[in-house]
Amino acid sequence: MRVVATAGHVDHGKSSLVLALTGTDPDRFPEEKARGLTIDLGFAFTNLPSGEVVGFVDVPGHVKFVKNMLAGVGAIDVALLVVAANEGWMPQTEEHVRILELLDVQHGAIALTKAGLVDDDTLELAHLDLDDHIAGTALERWPIIVVDSVSGAGVDALRGALETVLGAAPPPRDRGRPRLWVDRVFSARGAGTVVTGTLVGGAFAIDDDVVVEPGTQRARVRGIESHHDRLTKAAPGSRVALNLAGVDHHAIARGHAVVGAGRWATVDVVDVALRIISGETIARRSTLDVHVGSGQHRATVRVLDPEARFARVRFDVSLPLAVGDRFVLRSSARQTTIGGAEVLDLAPARRIAAAVARLGLPLGARLLAAKPWLRVADIEMLAGTSAEEAGALVDAMLGHGDAVRAGDWVVTNAELERVVVGTLELVDTHHREHPAEAGLEVAEVARRLQVDRGQLRAALAEHEQLVVSRDIVAMSGHRGAAHQEDGRRLLDALAASPFAPPAPAEVDVDQEVAKALVRDGAAVELDGVLFATSALDRARDMVAGAVRDRGTLTIAEIRDLLGSTRKYVMPLVNRLDAEGVTRRRGDLRIPGPRA
């Protein structure tokens, strides 16, 4: 299915034309039928000559209901502009066309309606006037079909034109990131919560886990319907009704979005490219109605540069947005459309100068300017792309030579150099001031360089001068405490009496050296007693073998086995209990799972 939204001035025959095309009256409410005036969105379906199903979203044309009109066109990429031959171009025609341009709707058709009410000369003049108004816009490429909905003249020609337009328009893309902006919500007897909208970005299937935003309400897709057919899966580009389990219909409203769980960034501040309508102005700081998808939100808009090319938009709620999303900006005081915006950055820089500098960059460079450490897994959400497109974007970033791949990240060359040089300086200074120590802890280096530990490890993974081992960063040629004179002397003393080791002070060695040996892994401290690591390994082998052979051991038997005293044996036995080599049963030790 493809979806087409109507547009045009009030009483120019949009609903009558949809009725003529589909056989369904899109006006759903008695008040609409009584007044002959569309107030809210209407929906209808038909089959084109090829058999392709097209769904129509019929929008109101009255100036009082622009909010509802915007809710209907926020997720479509093909439009049907309706202009009455007896009235021609009117104020809401103009505003609706400007809205379509701001939303970058490039494909559509124009119906010159009510042809039966005018003579040939008037019809020709209306056609010429229409040509003048659309000259220089994307609409000048759209076919113009003369139609009379009452007699049916031109309706078949319009169907054919729509088929041609839809065939030329790019097909809806499945990026694996579904989003449905809700335009209706209700509770169906026996089913519960049902929402409707135009599905874009990906597919939804039965039992999919979804999130309703704003509010991060988790739900499950219980049922799917499209064009009155029950489906197991709905493709992007379709008009869809989703039956949701796990969320109450009172908690959802028009303007909410149903998105695939874990597939969208939810933000309340974005930087955008502005497009102000000719003749309109925007204040440096203003509060506007910002129309996103099917919703209207109050937002503060701060212009970032003197030319009003860029702005920062701060919403009153967090929304699932992507780079490339388009908004319409309206003044609530004047009830007029003043411009539009395209999302450029989901993670705005704090400094305005930095924000403006990067907003003019291509997408890949812009993402890296925002995040010098760019996690590859996050690119889909940040760029609003599919996995395949994200991979191509990474290749482009690396191909320009300004960034490299480091583990799970793409990192700029400048940032990588900063981290590596900073680490070299920190570690070299530490080695000179504390030669007996193995090096600096990874966590400490990461904290001082303001990166996370994973990023630091990735930066140093293939560096020739720096090594990371046991959460310690050191120069590759550095020899730690075990190779220093005091360290060797203490280790020799520990090895000479492995199960009754002397204290460091008895060997005239500073406690700092002992701590360094523990960090190096050459020694281990158990309940305040320092043992050589090799002594713990020997004790483990000896006790494990004995407890397997005998079935049980007392502390006295372990003492005799090791040739030691209870003072030294208890710390060793406690460690073996913790490791699962032995297990305590009363006063005995029995084989543990790792015996």
Highest-level CATH class of the largest domain? Alpha Beta
Structural class: alpha+beta
Q: What is Rg?
A: 35 Å
Summarize model confidence as the mean pLDDT: 88
**Residues in helices, as a percent range:** 25-40%
The portion of residues forming beta strands comes to 25-35%
Report on this model:
- The chain is 33% helix and 31% strand.
- The protein has 595 residues and is an alpha+beta fold.
- It has 5 domains: 2-168, Rossmann fold (3-Layer(aba) Sandwich), CATH 3.40.50; 179-260, Translation factors (Elongation Factor Tu (Ef-tu), domain 3, Beta Barrel); 265-355, Beta Barrel (Elongation Factor Tu (Ef-tu), domain 3); 373-478, Arc Repressor Mutant, subunit A; 482-591, Arc Repressor Mutant, subunit A (Orthogonal Bundle), CATH 1.10.10.10.
- The strands form 8 sheets. It has a 6-stranded mixed sheet with strand order 2-3-1-4-5-6, with helices on both faces.
- Helix 12 crosses helix 13 and helix 17 (555-562) packs across helix 18 (566-579).
- The longest helix is centred in the C-terminal third of the chain and has 21 residues, at 413-433.
- The two termini are 65 Å apart.
- The model has no long low-confidence stretch (mean pLDDT 88).
